[in-house]
Amino acid sequence: MLPRTRALLRFLVQRGEHVRSLQLDIRGPNDWPESDRHELLGLLPACLAARAVQRPAQPGSGLSCLSISAETPLLCTSCLPPLTGMEELCLPGRDSSLKLRLGNSWRRLTALRSAHLSGQLLCTDDGPGLLPSLTRLCIEGDLNATESELDGRVSWLRFESREVYYLIAERRLARQCVSQLA
Amino acid sequence: MIVTSRLDHERVGALMPRPLLPKQVLAGLPALRCLELSESNYTSASLAGMSGLTALTRLVLTRCYDFPPAAAMAALAPSLLASEVHSVDDDDYLFDRVQALAGLESLAMDLGFDRSDDALVMRLPPTALMYNNVPAPPPAKLLISAHERTTGSPGSALLLSAPPAGPYLHSLRCLALPLATALAAHPLLAHAGQLHTLCLQLPDMEAFYELPLWPAFGQFVATHPPLRRLLYEVASGASDCPFRLLNALLALKERRPALQVQRLVSRSSRMYCLPTCWGRMHP
Questions:
Q1: CB–CB contact A141 B38 (8 Å)
Q2: Among A14-28, A45-59, B14-28, B226-240, which is the least confidently predicted range?
Q3: Rounded-to-integer distance, Cα B152 and Cα A11, Å
């Protein structure tokens, strides 16, 4: 995967001005050497930066659609705001470990119409976090984070009352309770 | 249902450290027409900023732990035309919010308990067959009875509960519901005077057409004046098409020849994909 990502970076540096839509789905094995993983983490922002600094082949023909899969390693999103021509951003499936800092830098994305955001949304400035031009917005949360945080609480509930499953509105939590009560 | 009252919901919710959606995220979006909240565990209070989305026409809530406050939902009513709610755990809580959405033209509700939940239900003691701290209402008992006749054990009959009556019914043109919910709700649907498309999400259980509720539901389909299309969708994880149930559905067409009966192919994963019927209704 690493050589292909390097090749992608070379392509974007040389021919990136022709790219209108970019879908990144970069997955590596779990037992990757740390050095390879570290390089990949640097390559992804480099790919986006390479695309951001290029002038479009024709006016209005810059990168308009960017999709980054949940499996693609992404440490931060500071590489996104420079893509000022972007109209559609799809960033699904991230857990709360990815911090999406919305603020003045995001206001450079004046063409953005559709956004699918996940991860932990943070607003770093006082003004609106997103752009008034948005017509479609999907905010994806992280239910699993809640579930893992509750793991230690279920046993406490069990000791309080065996009828706890009547009180539970979260079915995955209910499942855990039933398995403990069985 | 297994879950009980809103008070209980809040009691459990109070134990959960849940994040707040920063209020700036939903602020200053005057052109936003479609908002989807997916897998959201944000608190209800932090979703109150939704009330400022004055151009919103479509709201989708998928597997959300909590809903926006009723006042925020009501504030959307002047512009909101379509709403979808998928895989909700607490339908009582949902129905409270749906009532606030006056003026809706399209509504899809998937109160989904998935297959693994069926397994969960089987392991609950009989006393768990409760709804709002009282024994399951008569329609649910009927379903349980029918299911027991065919399988010998109680199961997903617990899905049955009807949406509430309310002014929101008057403007509905398209409605998508699980079949069990539609059976329970058909007396209410008579008040949906503009309803021309009804989409049913079929369960695995074939015995639904044996229920005493079925003839009355058939009568509704045959005689509700504006109804033109009956769509059905087989759950994507279903091992087999419920042919006997399907046969009973198609028999409704004999009573109303002009009725369009059409299957909608389910997508592979309903958890992350919207029901196809909705895409068909809103191409």
A1: yes
A2: A45-59
A3: 63
Residue A48 has pLDDT above 70, yes or no: yes
Do B210 and B157 meet the contact criterion of CB atoms below 8 Å apart?
no
* B54: confidence class by pLDDT, cuts 50, 70, 90: very high
The percentage of residues in chain B with a pLDDT greater than 70, rounded to a whole number, is 63
Share of chain A above pLDDT 90, in %: 14
Question: ipTM, 2 decimals?
Answer: 0.76
Set of chain A residues whose Cβ sits within 8 Å of the Cβ of B14 = none
Helix (H, G, I), strand (E, B) or coil at A91: coil
For A43-110, the DSSP string reads: HHHHHHHHHHHSPPSSTT-S--EEEE-TTS--S-STTSTT-TT--EEE--S--TTSEEEESGGGGG-T
Closest CA to A164 of A145, A146, A181: A181
- Specify the 3-state DSSP secondary structure of B193: coil
Instruction: Give the tokens for residue B199.
Output: 């989409």
Main-chain dihedrals φ then ψ at residue B245, nearest 5 degrees: -65, -40
B-contacting residues in A 126-155 (Cβ below 8 Å): 126-130, 132-143, 145-146, 149-150, 153
Backbone angles phi, psi at B232, to 5 degrees: -135, 155
d(CA A59, CA A51): 15
